[in-house]
Amino acid sequence: MRVEGWQAAGLSFGGRIELVQSVISAIALFWLQSIMVPLATIRKIEGICAKFIWHGGIHAISWEQLCRPRKEGGVGLRSLVSVREAAGIKLAWRFLQDGSPWSAWMASRYLRGRNFWVCEIDNNFSVPFKHILRNRTVLRTAIRRKMREGGEMDLWLDPWISGQSLLEILGPQTDGVAYRGLTCRHIISGGVWRPEEYRFTAQLGEEIRQVQITPTVLSDVWVWAPPGHSEGAGEFRFRSCYDLVRPHFDDIEEYDFVWGKGLARKMQLSAYKLVLGRLLTRDRLLRFGVPVPDPKCVLCETENESIGHLFFQCHVTWSIWAEQSRRHLGGVGRERDFREILKWIGDCRGHEQSWARRARLRLAASVWHVWRERNRRIYEGLSTPPVSILHNIESDVLVMSP
Ligand SMILES: *[C@@H]1O[C@H](CO)[C@@H](O)[C@H](O)[C@H]1NC(C)=O
Ligand SMILES: *[C@@H]1O[C@H](CO)[C@@H](O)[C@H](O)[C@H]1NC(C)=O
Ligand SMILES: *[C@@H]1O[C@H](CO)[C@@H](O)[C@H](O)[C@H]1NC(C)=O
Ligand SMILES: [Zn+2]
């Protein structure tokens, strides 16, 4: 099995991620957004992309993880599976747009007067229409009805009260016979809600009065209003739709360390792998079954190599960091662990924000240089003395600092 080598021919890891990113954007934009592509095809494409990113070697970080936004621990690749999901929502949204011949035809063929929101899925519905109906639940969380007189909304079945229908609010056990077949127009007059005549509870009456009537629209329209997104003024936006369907995760604490302003890309990616604990140190290679001639750390040549050892238990690495820290940060934290050092930087009060930023840049640059030194020793048989490494870090920090 090939290991993702330091000197892997051609593009670097970061370069390969960027290339895949643009290929995926093109696929998403020109293909997936307009037709439903089978899931198996999508997974195949994603598999090819992942293989390319890892250069045919060990996939140290799963594809799903890479596809998370940077804040949530990914590198911000777009998941084609989620793009496909969003395309399904887009299809359902298009169906809801009144007036298109396609939706009129679908409605007359399959709905036949039944209400879109409660219609059960028949076996003989076409595949796209089944897809639309299965995506109703998610769709309704992202849309809102802009009403003029509420004329077209079914009083009982349509979700017109903050995204819910009367049927859902009152429950199916309620006898809705008094409301069946009515539209919202029946409880609007002179541009205001008149729920009194229908004996709603006071609370429900109040909720109904909260539903906005917009006299300026020509007729009722659906507007695209997913939670947390305000752009677009009601127009469909694929980006917010993607955001709606993609999986969400907690933010990572080390975001500034990895993706903060100024850090060179190659350093971002070594910091990223370090934060996730996915650098392929010799202990991990052994666990993946890769034959490693010697489990020892090539810097100190005494202890076994692991991420914890390299960053920063190893006395060689530690000497490089401690020297800089003394010189530029006015001290050295006690713990020889990169997370603890990050915490120490964050806890150093009395400095400007730019101080912490520079300190994090310095730490990330040190990580990259140590990792590079380790790779050069292993794969190229070259070795640089710590003094020169220190010097190289200094000049990189100088270039990156504000
Ligand atoms: C689908 O099947 C139902 C009965 O289950 C039938 O009433 C309807 O006509 C069929 N629709 C189409 C489009 O074939
Ligand atoms: C949309 O419908 C398809 C089934 O056709 C389903 O696999 C998918 O999960 C649905 N998407 C959402 C966001 O509910
Ligand atoms: C170092 O790694 C080797 C091989 O995995 C193992 O046999 C040895 O016990 C390890 N030494 C220490 C100190 O952990
Ligand atoms: Zn060591």
TrEMBL record:
* Keyword annotations: Membrane, Transmembrane, Transmembrane helix
Pfam families assigned to the protein according to its UniProt record, in alphabetical order = zf-RVT
**Taxonomy, superkingdom:** Eukaryota
InterPro entries referenced in this protein's UniProt entry, alphabetically: RVT-Znf
Transmembrane parts of this sequence: 20-42
- Record domain Reverse transcriptase zinc-binding: where: 236-321
Q: What is this protein called?
A: Reverse transcriptase zinc-binding domain-containing protein
